[in-house]
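pinning this so it doesn't scroll away 📌
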Amino acid sequence: MRLNKIIKYLIGITIAAAVPLLFFFVTPSGRLNIPAYYRPERIVSRMEKGKVVRDTFFHQVRDLTLTNQLGQKVSLNKDLKGKVLVIDFIFTTCPSVCPRLSANMKELQKAYIKKNPELVQFISISVDPERDSVPALREYANRYEADHDRWWFLTGNKDSIFNYAKNELGLLLENADVPGDFVHSQKMILIDTARNIRGYFDGLDKTQTKKIADDIYILNVEKRKHGR
């Protein structure tokens, strides 16, 4: 009798944990609400069973090598292979947007750092790399209680950073080519393990950042399904 009670108790806990996830992630049609792909690059037509089938190929974000707050040279693709990325742009002397962006990124870190730290890497790239030295970034990271292994604050060549933001991530930049201006965006970008862009989110909106947390989970399910 005692064993049966224990089994029933465990089943109850499992159902209680699973039901909210199913409610949250499954649409009325019974399917997961899979994050969309962004930035189509080409469409290729092919014949399949006598019908024309069109395949859309989406932009794959190229690699970028910068220096993190620990003084390490890191590669976003090679060093983070198999990880989902969440990227934003900040600078340490920013008085307005950046503190709110970083506070919301901190909440995302909390959501995943204990449960599944190997799944996702959080990336904050400085748009003022000339002033944002390694010590400055480390101090800023500590301010937001960053796990230095799982949340990188990056600095490096300004042209490379601007090019990456504009040409790889497709951010709309204001006066990006004018010397002295900052590339600044309040967007957070979600990138899957194949380095396709899977979402642009308003990093100041907590509803949007909650959706990032949900979409990271869904991308993990997708990754396991396709074995990537």
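📌 and the second one:
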Amino acid sequence: MTDVAIHPESLKEIVSTALGEKAKRVVVALGEVTVVVDAGDYLAAMQILRDAPGCRFESLIDLCGVDYSTYMDTVWEGARFCVVSHLLSVSLNQRVRVKVFCPDDGLPLVASVTGLWAGANWFEREAFDLYGIVFDGHNDLRRILTDYGFVGHPFRKDFPLSGHVEMRYDAERQRVVYEPVSIEPREITPRIIREDKYGGGLH
């Protein structure tokens, strides 16, 4: 294990060389390296990042979904759903972020990386539950935070603030029951104005 972290520009070159044409884009912003790959190359690219000698990202420390449909209050031209992973190399003291966009907004689908990092299991279930992103090859893809009877995916930006159904305990039936939401939704979120270069311009 090395104590000295590699310079982000040097890591960018190492990752770019290792991935070759599988990297659509490799950028450095705010001192961090981000790789964008196509959904078709995602699993192979992740295996390279785990196994290549200069990469050795043996730990997946986070994986989440993103809904870009209203990104930064502007019209977003690309695919709506994205899976973002953060990888750590303990042995080489370096980190990288990987982004893959789901090619079909109607059925967001990417490969599962549970075969590479077992720790991706619950992360992928969470992204499925909250965003509806399907991970092909996951052997137990089911909801993890919401209830089995939950309707929709609550982190999608078009999901109503009040939800679709509400649950309560029915004393007569002695069980939990689901009923349509009985409150009128209202917009209470203040408009957020960001500076032009907020977030370093990374998309």
